[in-house]
Amino acid sequence: MVSVQVVAHPTSDLDSSLLRLNFSGAEFLFGRFSEGIHRALADHGPVKLSRVRQVFLTGQTTWTELGGLSGFLIGLSDTAVKKGLSVIGGRNLPWAIGTLRGVQFRQKIEVDVRYAEKAIVNEFMTVVPVELVLDGVDGLVDAADDGLSCKIESILERIRSTDDANEPVHSDTFTTRLLLPDTRSASMCYIIQPHPTPGRFNVIQAQLLGVPPGPAFGQLRKGLPFTTASGTVVTPDMVIGPIEQAEQVIVLDLPTHAFITAATKVDWLRPLQTGSPSDTCKVSTVMHILGPDIDPFSEQYTQFMKSFPSTCKASLRHLLAHPSYVPDTITVSRSARLRTALRLLSPTKFPQSNTASERKELPRSDMAISPAVAEPLTYSLDLDELRQQMSSAIADTAPSLAVRIVQQDECRQSSSSDVECICIGTGSGSPSTFKNVIGTIVRIRSREGYDSVLLDCGEATYYSLRRMYGAAGVVAILQEIKLIFISHMHPDHHLGLLTFLNAWTQGMRDGVIYLIAPVNIQIWIKDWSQVYPKFTNGLRFIDAEHLTAANSRHDPASVEELYDALDLASIQTIPAIHCKPAYSIVFSTSSQFKLAYSGDTRPNQRFAAAASNSTLVIHEATFDDVLLPDAIKKQHATVTEALCVAKDIRAQNVLLTHISPRYPVLPDFMCVDVLQRVLSAGQVLADEDEHGEFLVRDISEDDKKWCENVKVTVAVDGMVVKLSEMGDQEGWTELVHAVTL
Ligand SMILES: [Zn+2]
C-alpha cells in the first residue's frame, strides 16, 4: 500500500512544497527542493532519507525550485547513501546540474539526473510527467545542439568523480558559459498511478475449504487451483480477494497565474492503468503547488478544481500549497529551541525569531470540493510558551542559573555599537540540526546607517535571515549590504548566493553590490543570469585573485568604487591554505575599523601579517585541538590555532565560527580560557604541520597581556553580537543541559 503525505510547505525559512509517497519503506518525493530542504526533512521527518529512491522536481527549473538539491545530495552521501538515487525534472535540469561544475564537492555523489521526457515506470508506480509550456515566449535555444548535451554530460561526469576535486578548474569546458537549452517558461507536473496490489489471501476461508497451510497456500497465491483431500477443487478466486486498484495522485505546480490556462487544457484524468476503463478513474489526492499571484478561490481556479469529475469526488483531497494560506511554522524546530533557551540568559544576542507573518484563513466554501491546506503533520512551536516551560525547568534543576534569567519586561535594547555581527550559519561541511552552514554579516556603522558585508553564503542563508527579521525586516538588512565575499568553492560556503542575490536584486532596484569571489563563482552567476537577467544590473564582480598582494591586474574602476562604497582605507585578499583557489580577506575603513576573515584555512602566517592589529578577527575553528590530525588532513584550524593566530594579529575581538557538526549543540570550547590555551599551545600543537609551526613559540609578557584583554566569542546560529558585548557566554553550556532541546 502507498501512503501519501505532505512533508514540506512554504514558510519563512523554506520555499519548498513536497509530497512524499511511501511504498513499503521505499520513499519517493515530488515537489520543489528549495535551499534548506535536507535540513528540514532531517529535523522533523518522517521521510527516511536513506530510503529515498527517486526525486521528482516540479515547477520551473530555477534555483528557487532546486537550490536545495545539491545540499540534499551532499547530505545523503554524508549518511552513506552514495548510489541508486535518481533526480527527474524539467528539460533544463541537466543544465542546472551542469552549472555546478565549478563546485568542489568533497564526496563522490552518484546520481542519475534526467529530463522527464516520457512516463517512468518503476516497481511501485507509473509516473507520467506533464510539462506545461507557456506560448509566446522565446523558443528553444540550441535544442538540437549535440555539442551542448555532450558538454553537459562531460560536466556531469566530472561532478560524479572527485579525483581532482581540490584542483582548480581551468579548461575551456568549464569556463565558458553554459547556454540554457530552453528559454521558454515551462513547469513540470506529474500524474502518479501506483500499480495495483494483489488481493488479500483469506486464510480462514482457505482452511474452511479444507486447504492445509503450507505449500498449498503458495500454490493458490501463484494462481494455481488446489484439490483438497476430500476432492474439492479450490480455485484462487475462492480464497484471494480482488486486485486492489490504487488511486492516482496528481502533483500540480503552477508558479504563476499564466500557467492556469495551460493546466486547464490537460486531461489530468487520463486512465493510466492498462485495461482500466476511464469511468473507473480514481484520484485520491491533488496537490496544488501555487505561486503567490494565484488566487485559489478565484472563479477561474475554482472551476478548474471542479473539473475533476464526480467519479473522483467522493474521497478526493485537494491540498493547497500556497504561501498565503499555509501556516508559517518554524522549520528547524530544535535549533529554534536552542535559541529560545539562550535568549533566557542573553536576550540582546538572540532576537526572537519572526513568527508573525500573516497567513490567510481558508474561506468557507460552498463548493462541492473542500480544499485543505497542504501542511505536514503539525509540529508548530509557540516560542512564548516554550520560554515559560524552559524557565520553569531551569528554576527546578539549575537555581543558580535561574537568578540570571532576564525577565521579558527587563529586556532592553542592547547598547548601541559601531559594529555588529549577525551569525546566520556557523557550521562546517553540511547543515546539521543546530548549525546551518556558514554565513556571517558584519554591520559597520556609517554616516547614513550601516554598511554591511556578508562573509560567505552557505545554503539557506537568505531564508534564515528572513526567519530572524521577517519579510519586511530582511529587506532592510539586505539594503545595507555593500559587499559579499565568497572565500572558496566548497559547497558549504556559497550555495546560498543565488537566492541571496535574487532577493537583493528584488529589494534594490538601483543599488550596486560588490562580490569578491573566486572566478568560478562569476561563471556560475553568468550561467544563472540567463534565468535571472536582473543579476547583472547591480552586481560588480571582483576576482578575489586580483586583490592579492602578488597581483595587480585588478579592475581599477570596480575596486575604486568599492573603496567609496565602504569608505575603505585598504582591502586585500590572502591566498588561504585550503583547496585551490581559496582566500581570506582583510580590510580597514577610514574610521579605523579593521576586519579580518580567515575563510577556511590552516593557520596562515601571511594572513596574520596582513590582519595585524585588527579590531575584529573572524576565524574558522572547525575542530578542538584533540582533532589536530583531522584539521591538518582537511586543511582547517583548531581552536588553539585560531587563538594563536589572533594573538599574533593582536586582535581586539575574536569570533570563532565554522564549527564541525560533530559538536552537536554547543561546542565544548564555549567560554574558552584564552591564556591557558595559549600557554599550552606548545604541547597540544606538538604535531603541527609546516603551516602551524609558526604558532609554537615562547610566550612573552605582551602575549599574556593580550590574552587577558581580548574578547573571544564562539558563534552560535542566530546570534547577533555587538563588539561591545563580545565575550560574555558564561552559563550557556550549563543552560542547555538544564532544558530539553
Ligand atoms: Zn572548505
From TrEMBL:
Please give the catalytic activity noted in the UniProt record: Endonucleolytic cleavage of RNA, removing extra 3' nucleotides from tRNA precursor, generating 3' termini of tRNAs. A 3'-hydroxy group is left at the tRNA terminus and a 5'-phosphoryl group is left at the trailer molecule
What is the top EC class of this enzyme, as a single word?
hydrolase
Q: What is its EC number?
A: 3.1.26.11
Keywords from UniProt, A to Z, are: Endonuclease, Hydrolase, Metal-binding, Nuclease, tRNA processing, Zinc
Q: Which GO terms describe its molecular function?
A: 3'-tRNA processing endoribonuclease activity; metal ion binding
Which residues are the signal sequence here? Answer: none
Q: Where is the tRNase Z endonuclease domain?
A: 5-68
Cellular component GO terms, alphabetical: mitochondrion
Q: What InterPro entries does UniProt report for this protein, alphabetically?
A: RibonucZ/Hydroxyglut_hydro, RNZ2-like, tRNase_Z_dom
Q: Which domain of life is it from?
A: Eukaryota
Record family assignment? Belongs to the RNase Z family.
GO terms for biological process, alphabetical: mitochondrial tRNA 3'-end processing
Required cofactor(s)? Zn(2+)
Show the PANTHER family listed in the entry: ZINC PHOSPHODIESTERASE ELAC PROTEIN 2
What's the protein here called? Answer: ribonuclease Z
The species is Lipomyces starkeyi NRRL Y-11557
Tell me one Pfam family matched here. Lactamase_B_4
- SUPFAM superfamilies in UniProt: Metallo-hydrolase/oxidoreductase
> CDD domains in the record, alphabetically?
RNaseZ_ELAC1_ELAC2-C-term-like_MBL-fold
